[in-house]
Amino acid sequence: MSSLSANRSNLTIVYQDIAALNPRKSNPRTHSKKQIDQIARAITQFGFTNPVLIDDANGIIAGHGRVAAAKLVGMSQVPTVRLGDERSRDPRLCHRR
Fold first, then answer.
1. Any bridge partners for residue 92, and if so which?
2. Model pTM above 0.70
């Protein structure tokens, strides 16, 4: 067993109402209309393949563009993974690019 395995917790995907999610005001990533349209086409073609990461207050950690695209295609719910406050304090550690 690797040290990574010892620190893993079980993650659960839960479908949440989009209206219940809170976008971060200080979201460092912004998306153009063209990018949102591209994400929307991908969701339509392939489905929602990457859940939105949220904290305990339903704050979006990662997935602002996916949520905007989901709204565009008429979805009322999106798949989410709750990381909790402890793991979401520094979003850069949760979702590096």
1. none
2. yes
